[in-house]
Design a protein that fits this description.
The structure is a homodimer.
Chain A lengths: L8 H8 L4 E5 L4 E3 L7 E7 L2 E6 L5 E7 L18 E4 L3 E7 H10 L1 H24 L3 H18 L7 E3 L4 H8 L3 H13 L4 E3 L2 E3 L3 H7 L18
Helix pairs in contact in A: 2-3, 4-6, 4-7, 5-6
The structure holds a DNA duplex.
DNA sequence: CGTGCGATTGATTGTCTTCAATAATGGTGG
DNA sequence: CCACCATTATTGAAGACAATCAATCGCACG
């Protein structure tokens, strides 16, 4: 397990001492179904995943993306069935740790317990930001790209402002409550403005500062800590 | 402290053994400001409060309502500064418990710790439902009324389908990302449809089943457990 | 008795959706 | 190897929904 998404590496080390196994989930398949009561804590090792709910009319709302190092099912600690599903956006390698062991580790180490809390608070803060941002289509697209850029940068997957963006425009729309048609137009507009170039599932941000200013993005809610510099 | 919003009364009892004090916050004033690092866990004793963020353009987004028994600042357990503010929708009585004592109680009692987790998961599930519901103005207004009804019913504040709804139409709009004008029109429409009557800060639902079906409301995400029957 | 807040209604504008058609791409089976 | 198909992206035209602008009303309060 390379990356555990917990800020303090000391707490991450606790996780690494627990036994884990890896499963493979193909693109578009569910990692966890709604209503599941997972016995494991899941971590995305490689690939992208997304939380989503299905509306009565059949449409889908993505409520969060999960990138390598993110955990899916911390809620399992409370032993509640999942109220939403989690799908693989790309082919995924998913590590899993028996939840009992995580609970035991949390009981033993207050610092580890706080790290789990902090992880949940980041999820929650992100949901609030998504709610707050859902006003203007153009800038919410830009803001999402900024968020993904910041998170990918923190795990070293950004190179000179460029990164792989495996989500389809339809999935971006599902995340932002926009039609794929409108996402396409907004991306076109952002490209014309020289802020973001997206093509063939690759994104490039020529001027990060300009983009972040334009869409009022501030990465503080992600609590990424000191990230590895993006250039490599 | 009458009501602590934790499902299992045994865990609630743990809280009740901790020393607490009560502060008064007048309507429209902040209970907690953005960036605050509260030393206390706050509980709404009486009144309504709301979490909110301010956008760059000055507009406000309400990301959740807090009713009597709800806790404001569980996140304080992770000792992170608040990323959003909390305001009093009505005059509020707010109880507070030193956060150190809560942390100590959680360390001692795994069941209490799980109860805190569950509380956070409900907040998170609610945020996801708000995101998912933000598609159709009419039904999102109806859904919000249903949510508030269900939560108020669980604390015995609903009588024969009627309850006090102290939020202004502007605040409802801020919660749903709608203008107050449009909220007004949607409420008018719901009234015409015989689903909800709102007037003078009082709401009445003539046929709960019909309303819940119409807006696809299912209270499960609130984890209210066995509620007190509404008739009294 | 004015003042301010909240609710209500009308008219107009604009954003986003819907419907539709085409193009580009990659994978599959014959 | 290539024809076929599914998926994704792209663009145009029309329509729907919600925002904006603006005015009035009712009411509580000083």
């Amino acid at each position: 397990m390379q990356n555990v998404g917990l800020i303090d590496s000391k707490e991450a080390a606790t996780l690494l001492t627990l036994p884990w196994s890896v499963i493979h989930v193909p693109r578009q398949k569910d990692i966890l179904r709604i209503g599941a009561s997972p016995e494991y804590l899941y971590f995305i090792e490689d690939g992208w995943a997304a939380r989503y709910s299905i509306r009565r009319d059949g449409s889908r709302r993505i409520t969060g993306f999960m990138l390598p190092g993110d955990s899916c099912s911390i809620h399992a600690i409370a032993r509640e069935p999942l109220d939403h599903a989690i799908m693989a956006v790309t082919d995924c390698e998913v590590a899993r740790i028996p939840v009992d062991l995580v609970i035991a580790a949390a009981a033993e180490s207050p610092a580890f317990s706080v790290a789990l809390w902090r992880s949940k608070l980041i999820d929650e803060a992100t949901l609030r930001v998504w709610l707050t941002n859902s006003k203007d289509a153009l800038w919410s697209v830009a803001h999402l790209i900024c968020e993904l850029h910041a998170r990918l940068d923190a795990i070293g997957e950004v190179s000179d402002g460029a990164f792989v963006l495996p989500a389809t425009q339809e999935q971006i729309g599902d995340a932002l409550n926009l039609t794929p048609v409108h996402v396409n137009r907004m991306l076109k507009k952002l490209r014309s403005a020289g802020l973001i170039q997206v093509r063939d599932f690759k994104a490039f941000i020529p001027d990060l500062q300009a983009l972040q200013t334009a869409c009022a993005f501030s990465p503080s809610y992600l609590h990424l800590g000191v990230s590895t510099p993006s250039r490599h």
